[in-house]
Amino acid sequence: MTAIDELLHRHAIGVDHGAPEVPTPVPSLHLAVVTCMDARIKVFDVFGLRHGEVHIMRNAGGIVTDDIVRSLAISQRKLQTREVIVMQHTSCGMSTITDDEFKDEIERDTKLRPPWAIEAFREVKDSVRQSVERVRRSPFVPYRDNVRGFVYDVRTAELTEVD
């Protein structure tokens, strides 16, 4: 059985009934969370979330990329979010690679060099600061006054705000 088949089986016997009590795609807390795709980050648990409260945007590293800005622009302009949390984490895989070595690897395998930035980092706090600044400076994101950045410790579950 493949992993996809396993998840489809879990869904079939599980307790997911959708979210019929949430009648709108507008998140009730008017908040968007940008975070990493790392499977250890259980965003709903980290913040004690319920269905329908926030928009969650995930990618490798929790980096504010052009696509995240696109999603934030839609979230704010069409779906009424007004605040943004950028949450990256300790022991992130993005801190174990470099942009050039990863692009070189892909180019060796495919004969094509990716045009997109990898955005690897060494210091997670610096990466959080950079991503927060990208949101604050984006002309496409209209509500930039309440954008805050955090580092989540995957070992202790401590959440530290980055100034």
Describe the overall structure.
- The chain has about 160 residues and is α/β, with parallel strands linked by helices.
- Helices cover about 35% and strands about 20% of the residues.
- It contains five helices and five strands; from the N terminus they run αβαβαβααββ.
- It has helices at about 5-15, 45, 65-80, 100-110, 125-135, and strands spanning about 30-35, 55-60, 85-90, 145-150, 160.
- The chain has a five-stranded mixed beta sheet with strand order 2-1-3-4-5, with helices on one face.
- Strand 1 (about 30-35), helix 2 and strand 2 (about 55-60) form a beta-alpha-beta unit.
Keywords:
alpha/beta; 5 helices; 163 residues; 5 strands
Task: Give a short summary of the structure.
By secondary structure, this protein is of the alpha/beta class. The protein has helices at 3-13, 43-47, 66-79, 99-110, 124-137; strands at residues 31-36, 54-59, 83-89, 147-152, 159-162.
**Order of H and E elements:** HEHEHEHHEE
Query: What global shape is seen?
Result: globular
Give the number of helices: 5
Model regions low in confidence, pLDDT < 50 over at least 5 residues: none
Helix content: 25-40%
> Helix/strand-derived class?
alpha/beta
The averaged pLDDT comes out at 97
